[in-house]
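Quarterly update, task 2.4: 2-acetamido-2-deoxy-beta-D-glucopyranose-bound model.
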Amino acid sequence: MSSSYQPLLFTILVFFLGSIFLEISPALGGKTHVDSWAPVKNLSETKMVEIGKFAVEKHNNEANAKLVFQKLVKGKVLQGYGTEYNLTITAKDSAHNDIAKNYLVVVVDAQFMNKLRLVSFKGPV
Ligand SMILES: *[C@@H]1O[C@H](CO)[C@@H](O)[C@H](O)[C@H]1NC(C)=O
Ligand SMILES: *[C@@H]1O[C@H](CO)[C@@H](O)[C@H](O)[C@H]1NC(C)=O
């Protein structure tokens, strides 16, 4: 007698497990994933502009260059133990007729030291 209920129970069980899986899976692939870069939505954001300017100043010091920060073209941010910024910026070269070109910069904000660090400055691209 009870065996006639088994297919129904099986269906309920599969449905139940399936719904649990669907509840959990967005969390697994979601925002908590440490390797996901988030695009910078507002390229005028004060914090982002400051990081772009920091990269240019630091590069000017290190490479004895005379670039002048203009604007952010695009950027992405990786949150980990610190924050990594990968930005494309436009800068004028005041040592070469103020020609504006794009540069790729990577800056790390190591929160525990409360200090920005220029990782790389590439370009013009
Ligand atoms: C972008 O950031 C700037 C500077 O903080 C702000 O003035 C502007 O309103 C922001 N734009 C948007 C679309 O949020
Ligand atoms: C930064 O992003 C650019 C693409 O926008 C990519 O080509 C480059 O490899 C990235 N640099 C790092 C250090 O992740």
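Highlight for this quarter: The pocket of 2-acetamido-2-deoxy-beta-D-glucopyranose (ligand 1) is lined by residues 42, 44-46 (CB under 6 Å).
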